[in-house]
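Catalogue entry: protein
Contents: sequence, fold tokens
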Amino acid sequence: MKSRLARRIARVCCGAAAAAALVLATPSLAVANPTSGTDVPDSTVTITGLLNGDTVSAYLIADADIDAANNLTYIMAPGLPEAFNTIDELSAVVSDGTNFVERSAMQNAAAAIANNLGNAAVTAQANGNSAALTLGSGYYLIRVTSTNGDTRVYQNMIVDVSPTPAGATYTPHQGQTLAVKMTEVSVTKTVGDNDAESTDKYGIGDEVPFKIVTALPNYPTDAANATFVITDDLGAGLELRADSVLIGGQPAATGAAYTLSTTGNQLKITYNRDYVLAHPGEQVTVTYKAAITADAFSNATGVTANNAKITFNPNPYDGGTKEPSDSTTVKTYGYYFKKTQPDGTPLPGATFTITLNNGQVLTSQSDQDGWVYFEDLAAGQYTATETVVPSGYRKAPDQQFTLSADTATSDNPATGAITENNYLAGPSVIDPKQPLLPTTGAGGVLVLVAGGTALIVGGIVLFVLPKRRNRS
């Protein structure tokens, strides 16, 4: 009895162990629940190229099933556009690859289908740069939404996870890894004739050219929001020339495409939603000029910043926006020196002038400490000429100097501000005193006057006496 019982127990244990081994050896896909008795297990679709936290949603377009006669059938989702309400029409557009191609067959289909979707069948959140979806057999529209994508707009995708024929039967669709379709949204700001990031070739009174290059976002056509705004804030020391603004090489003016605003020292271009949706990816180039003013030198580094940004919806299905930006800088320089008497004592009241290439004349008068300084100058060579000389002194020689990032590295002691972009001339500029008379004091002056008078009288006598003799 014991031996029979032991053998039965052994057989039961072996069967249980075998069953357990079978379960452990079976792939996880095999334990998914089919939607019918003849359906195949679910498949996995992994979307890559995401940002951590992005949301990936799958909307069922066509539900695939295997009927009792082992035929593959589909049930189409209600409300599909006529051009994409059959499997043949869908299968023709999912083969354009995973790289985004503007206005491709898949993009056109996805845009049309996306307007007629119900609730998402499956939703997953990106962990790192990918998200995995477990999907039943059929066709799906994949939508990615994000609130932390500073420079991207995601595009809808259509994927096929239909069962795969295997002889007289079907097997689940092989797992797929697909790169997300997206477009980048960015802005580039440049300054100067050579489209650089910074310049020191312009000074006070000069009009500096600026350029903004960007492109309209490629929003899905079902986007609830399609915001696109270009904003340029000119820093202190730059004065916008509103009549110089060009968009696409043409004078800017409010119209069907955008609304233009030039309030204060800000340039703002707000594009109309319908225009944005109708012109995906259209390049936008904005140019304008701004004059450098006396405020350009008022900041700590002598650099006037100029910042352009664009506002758009990384997730066009909610109202959140992001603002990628780019900046340029205009650097100006200063020149200063100390005006003194021959003994080193400060000499106030001496006026110097500099004539710029744009014709503007700058004037600076030495203060009580003798400082003469000029601000907001471009890199280059200059000549400072003394045009008003204090009484009792003679004009000093012209001061010639060259300004650059290498020479202008000092602070201006006359202002007390930390600027680090001034050129200090040395040694001090001296006005020589006028030559003195031979003697000083009232007595000396009287002798000189008397001597002069005697010479005048003597001359008159020599001139008049000969004439009288001739008359006699």
Notes: Helices lie at 2-25, 87-91, 105-114, 273-278, 442-471.
